[in-house]
Specification:
Elements: E1 4-5, E2 7-8, E3 22-27, E4 33-38, E5 45-47, E6 51-53, E7 58-60, E8 63-64, E9 73-77, E10 80-83
Parallel strand pairs: 2-3
Antiparallel strand pairs: 1-10, 3-4, 4-5, 6-7, 8-9, 9-10
The structure holds zinc ion (ZN).
Length: 85
C-alpha cells in the first residue's frame, strides 16, 4: 500500500459518509484543530487525541485504526498518509 492522499470533507458532518482517506476538521477545546478520519485502509471513521495542522496538513501523533478497525498504523504528513506496518 503506497501513500494515500488526504481529502478534507468539511461539506459533511456525518463521519459515516466519509470514504477512505477522507476527514472532517473540528475545533478542539484548546483551539487547535482535530480530524475525524476515515482510515485510509478500511474506511472506519476514527477520532483520537490528535492535533492537526491545517497549514502543513500534518497530524500528530500517528494514526492507529483501533479495535473496531483494521490495525492500520500510519503517519499523516504533508497531506499524505504513509503506512508504517
Ligand atoms: Zn482501518
Amino acid at each position: 500500500m503506497g501513500k494515500v492522499l488526504l481529502k478534507i470533507r468539511n461539506d459533511t458532518v456525518n463521519r459515516f459518509d466519509l470514504n477512505k482517506g477522507e476527514a472532517i476538521e473540528y475545533n478542539r477545546n484548546d483551539k487547535t484543530k482535530g480530524l475525524i478520519i476515515a482510515c485510509p485502509q478500511c474506511g472506519y471513521p476514527a477520532s483520537g487525541p490528535h492535533e492537526y495542522d491545517p497549514e502543513t496538513q500534518t497530524l500528530k501523533p500517528s494514526l492507529i485504526c483501533g479495535a473496531e478497525g483494521c490495525n492500520y498504523h500510519g503517519h499523516l504528513k504533508n497531506r499524505y498518509f504513509d503506512k508504517v506496518k
